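Bug #2210: token dump truncated for XRE family transcriptional regulator?
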Amino acid sequence: MSTLAERLNAWFADAATRDPVGRMREPSTAEVAQAISESPEHDVTISRSYLAALRSGAQTNPTVSVLSALVHYFKPRAASLPISMAALTGEEEDDAGWAQALADRQVRSIAMRAGELTPEARSQLLTIMDALDASRRETGQP
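Reproduced locally. Full output below:
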């Protein structure tokens, strides 16, 4: 799974445009911070240094309003990457894993039946599954 900084930097790279000389140029951290801060569509103000800290991974827990402002900035640009809160927070990657796992009929059946159990029974089921996982790891099974 990629980090917030990696996903954000990918958005910057994906938003690159040709400069007057014809070279691809991504928006600078300062340009994005200024555009977000000046946008009348929200009340988020973000500094260049804070955005740089998000891009470097030094800051890893921005507020929902900051994430929303970033999505709002990058959304209208022609992009090949998904631009959404879920994509930025990594939830979309998690969703892809769930979708792949739930494609199996037996997995869906187990999940549906587990949903009907009491919280205590679900806890017992998770304990059994943890024991099965430990046993698999000890024997070197995938």
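Output looks complete on our side. Residues 104-139 form one domain. Marking as cannot-reproduce; reopen if the truncation happens again.
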